[in-house]
Amino acid sequence: MALYQQLPFFNPSVPFTRLIQGGLKDGMSITVCGRVLSDANRFQMDLKYGSDIALHFNPRYDGGSGYVMHNTYQNGGWGSEERKYETPFPKGQLFALQILVTLGSYKISTNGKPFSEYKHRMPFSWVDRIHMSGKVELSLVAFQYLAPHQPLGSFTVPYKSIIHGGLQLGKVIIIQGFINPQANRVGFSLRHKTGIAFDYSARFDENVVLCNNYEEGNWGKEQQSDLVPFKRGEPLQVTIFCSRHYYEVFVNGEQTHNYSHRVTKLEKIDVLEVSGDVQLTFVQP
Hints:
Oligomer: single chain
Helix content: under 10%
Number of strands: 25
Order of helices and strands: EEEEEEEEEEEEEEEEEEEEEEEEE
CATH topology of the largest domain: Jelly Rolls
CATH architecture of the largest domain: Sandwich
CATH class of the largest domain: Mainly Beta
Radius of gyration: 19 Å
Largest sheet: 7 strands, antiparallel
Structural class: mainly beta
C-alpha cells in the first residue's frame, strides 16, 4: 500500500480546519502535535463530514481533575458520551495525539501510549475534514499509513526502531523532545543493512549541522549548514518527510534542509536511530 502523501501542516493557527485528501481509509494515522495553553479549560479534535462529526475527541479541564469526552454528532444530535477520567495532556506542556483508523474503531494514543478506543458510529470513509479548536497551540498535523501492529516501545536515548516495510514516498517521521541544557550533539540516522542512507548531526560544540551518508565503509560528501534551528534547553520537534527526490527536514515547523536521496531503493532503509543529548517524548518512526 502506498503511503498517504498529503503534506504535513506546520504551525497552523487555531481554529484549524482542512480537507483530508481522499478521505479516511483503514490503516491511516493522523498525528497532531502541539501544546495545551496554561489557561485551558478544553480543546477538541473533530473528524467531520458536512455538519456531522464522526469522532469528537474533547479533553476538558473543568473541576480540576479533568477528563476526555468522546462522542458522535449525526442528523442534528449528539449520541451518548463516552468519558475517560484521565488527563493525558497537562496544561502548558507539549503533546502528541495519534488516531489510527481501523475497520472497527479509532484507536487513540497519547504521547506514544495507548489511551482509548472509540467504535465507529458512522462510516469512517465518509470523513473528509479535520477540525481543531479550543485552548491549544498546534505545531504539526500529519497524515500517513502506519504498519499494522507497529509497536510503540520506549523513547530512551540512544533510540532505535524498525521502520516496518522500509521507507516509501510520503513517509513522515516525527521526533519530539527536549534538548539538554548542556548539549554537545544530537543526531538522527536512517539506516539500511549495510550503511547509513541519511545521517543528520546537530553539533553544538561546532555550531553546525552536518548531513551525510555512509556506504561501503566510507562517508560521502558532507553537507554543512549553520545550527540555526536548534537551541540548548528548549523543546525540539524534527519532522523528516520523504519526498520523491529529497528528505525534507523541518525543525520546529520550519523547513531547514533538503537532502537528496543517495540510496534510491527506499524500501531497503528500515531503521531509525536517535542519539546524543536529547530527551525524547514522542517518536513516530
